[in-house]
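User: Second chain of the day. Same drill as before.
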Amino acid sequence: MTIRIGYIGLGNMGAPMAHRLLDHTGSLSVLDTNPDAVTPFVEAGAHSVSNAAELASVSDIVCVTVLDDTQVRDVVAGPDGLLSSAEPGTVIAVHSTISDTTAVDLGALCATHGVEFVDAPVSGGAAGAKKAALAVMVGASDEAFEKIRDPFSAFAAVVVHAGPIGAGTRMKLARNLLHFVSFTAATEAQRLAEAAGIDITELGKVVRHTDSITGGAGSIMWRDSTSPLEQDDSWFPIFSHVRALGEKDLALAMALGDRLDVDLPLATRALAGLGPGLGVGIGDIARTHSMEEQP
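Assistant: Same format as last time:
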């Protein structure tokens, strides 16, 4: 059975995602405030509509990729929004990164119309969308998830059911927390390298290369709990080894920073928190460093 899909927001992310849906379904309707963004989709066989209400009236699933919470609320619940014409059973899937409380509020509002709300933020950027390689984190009922799983596979390599409405957004916020904290750590590493006379563009080349092999921070994210590990747990020797290497290298980097008078606050926090965060407790190097720091 052909699923009628509607797409709102044909910008840097929305356009490549919607483009993938052209090949997935014979019925795609699109809407954007910029007519130039709509034209190539119409030329490829999609239908153009004038507003969100019209889009909902011809869609079984509506994907929304707009800027922020305010725009999402307007698209979904505004005077000419999706809920003004959506039939019961319609699924509204929001790919924008919004507040989890906005997702929950809109989910409750949609339920009063018999409409399924899905918060489905994505990770992987426009490049990932063009390659159909995005990761989608879905907050939805089981029924709604089953409806969107196949269409989403048109633009995603990974579709995860994170939990009920709001869970997809919470997972995305945790993922982006890691993303931007790591950016901050990268700037700290650049400052240390620059002070040491290192070409930081070459450092960046090395980081991108090795992270593409090792998986970066994601390479340690295998556990199903953040609780401390028992010594007979199979992960304990693995993460104890990671702690030993990490504490050694962090301590060496901090010693270099001290000699070059470069403040490394994230490295200091990492040295103290690496072992406990891995679930194996603080190691000898971090313990010694902590004692040396005490007055």
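Residues 95 and 138 are 9 Å apart (CA to CA).

User: Great, on to the next one.
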